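Thread title: Can someone regenerate the structure for this chain?

I was given the following input by a collaborator and told the matching structure tokens would be attached. They weren't. Posting the sequence so someone can regenerate them.
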Amino acid sequence: MRKSLLTSATAAALAAGVLAIAHPAAADDGIRHVDNTAETCTDTGAGAASAPFCTVGAAVAGTTAGQTVEIRGDLYDERVTVTASGTPEQPITIRFVGDAALEGPNAGFVVDGGHDIRFENLQAWMFSDDPVRFTDPVLDLRDASGITVDGGVLEMMAAETPGAPVVRLSGVTDSLLTDFSIVGMRLLAGITMDAGTSGVTIDSAQVRQARAEDVPADTPGIRVEGTGNTVVNTLVSQFRGAGVLAGPSATGTVLANNAVTYGGSHGIHNSGANGTAITNNTIVSVCGDGIRVDGKASGVSVQNNRLENGFSSALAYCDPAQAGKEVEISIGQDAKDTLVDYNNAFDGTTTSTRLYSWAGTAMSLADFRTASGQSGHDHEVKPGSSLDRDSANSAAPGFQLTDVHGKTRADDLEQPNTGAGPITYADRGATETRFSPTVRTSFDPNPGKSAITLDAPFTVDASASTSRTAPIASYVFRFGDGTVTTQASPVASHRYAEPGRYSISIDVIDSDGMTGRLFQDVSVVRTIATTGVLSAYHGTYMVAPWGDMRANQKELIPAAQFDLVDVGRGHVALYSRYKQAYVSVDRSFHDVLVANKTMVDDTARFTLVRFAEGFVKLKSVATGNYVNTVNDPMAHLAADKSPDEFLERFYLASVTGAPFAAVKATKAPSISGTLRVGSTVKANPGTWTPTATSYAYQWYANGVAIKGATGQSLKIPAALAGKRLTVKVTAKLVAHPSGTATSPASAKIAKAAAPKATKRPAISGTPKVGRTVKVSVGTWSPKATSYKYQWRLNGKVIKGATGKSLKLKSSWRGKKITVTVIARKAGHLDGKSTSKAVVVRR
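Best answer:
Regenerated them for you:
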């Protein structure tokens, strides 16, 4: 079982070969379905979805113009020849879906003499577990026209150099191969076009291989012959020969926006081809020349290219004997009319004497300009230089309006436009440089200068953000609490519902989709009061004038005033408006207190513990110890182990607000819901001032606490029937004494509905004088826990007859006997049901 380099699929071998069996024209939906995993597949039908073909060849053999062959299922070991043709308006379409693919030692497609045929997501993988030499291409197009390949993977995993390229075009005209990949090992070539091929475009392909060192040197990635052929927006990598080779019979070839990397020879080699446009290519790390024009070539243009090469010892297939002989651009003796300009080149040194070659002589850029009279706008610069940007000649032959990624040309607003032609801001090389917007924000309030509180909106202003290559289109504000705002305006406000630390992000997106992002953490607090913190031991206030904090200030000066704030999770923090920072524990220096945090982390979190005597203690979340003062005149503050419990005591002296005010109920708690066994009732906590942040509950029945009933709701158990409920609510607010209030007593809890008989009781036994009869209780819902019985004679109660059985007396002969069953269940009313009557016989 094998996985493709790009796609995984389960192997399934079917008979190989070209099938030419005649079939009905089409299935009802106009699609000839193929699925070798369907139990109903057959090669004798019309290819309906319910009865698809088992093989691709069988489906293709019967196609006519306008029909589609849709291939699903698994792997098909087939080589398929397409003999039919479509029309420009109604092409034949061959479409692969899901994991379906041709795979095998001769897998592939042949089009011989056909026209107007379209392949979609073409999947064909030539592979063999045995060391065989492949002799045929994966895709073989002969004397064909109007062929389209739109997407797919063509693979040739060769054990030795094959006798054919992966894709071969012979006598092909007016065709497009786009958005597909060629991968393989030991390839002879990726794509070849012969002298009879014209008007063919290769667009947005990836052509690459491994083990190139095992093949002959003259093995190009793409070989172009013929007239008016184009290779654009294509990546070619790791071929022993040239990345792209334009041969002697090629004329009017366009090679633009391509990226050639890690090649064993030249990046682009124009070998005697006339009228070739070599434009906006990027060539990196090839063993030979970046761009080479030789042979009797005329009318060649080499413009807007970006080259960085030189001998690379990391490539196993580079020839060490050629080290130091390569150049970036080489123009041969018989190709002197080649136009060379607007290129950027670099070979690892800043002033190379082997950057160019003219008529076989290597030279510097300056010497090349002197010898050729060209390259007036070329630069010797490292990749990424600002001279790559906004400096190309958009009037160069073969220039594309979009780059290798399909993006339009973008004007870098911070770079002078030094290019030529109608678009003076186009870039050199295959990729048009784009910059993400720069995000610049201001905050109100500023997290580093003041606290962000629940009682005021938090505003983010990104209007100072800038974009270099496209206008700003939108802004996305994520406030960290699940709120996301997308808008055209750069200003957004938000009000937080709960205190805590939030990570917000601001995205600035330009019209090309480039995104700049900025992150900012903010601490959101609820202000309880502004207070002074008075040491019970020293009788002086905590102060934050500089460095470490101390409790040595006699007056409530501004430096001794702090905002006591709720930071969530039951913790408080102290915010010094004087220092514009939160008080925190310095873990690196004896756990002393300092006022230097703009964000609340664990070092700035404290648990406020209140005592009945009126003092408080502050327990550090970071150290687990109480804040205490040292018994010295300076009264340093630290959250370390205290030598004396008295040093940990502080009083809060209110400046504004009332930090000691207990939470009080202004509206008593109440109980809602149905007061019946089995129902659920709920406690409404009432209204409190100041507003509480959490509540605790305890339920009572007739004044006695119900064990475990501490939730806001209570499902009434049977044991509470006839009793009255109350609920005590404890309201909590950080830094405030808790308050309690109890709801009014409820009405008595009613019993639940009586059990009902879903099957009546029945009398069993022989109803004769002297015999004993019994009663079966029937079926009850809900199920009863106990039963009582009452027997009757002609409808009248039989005194003492309350058992499950009854002995019949002679005086009852000819009279009717019935029994009523009373079903009982704790907390429920009693249920009753009476049996059918039976007549007492002799």
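The chain is about 0% helix and 40% strand.
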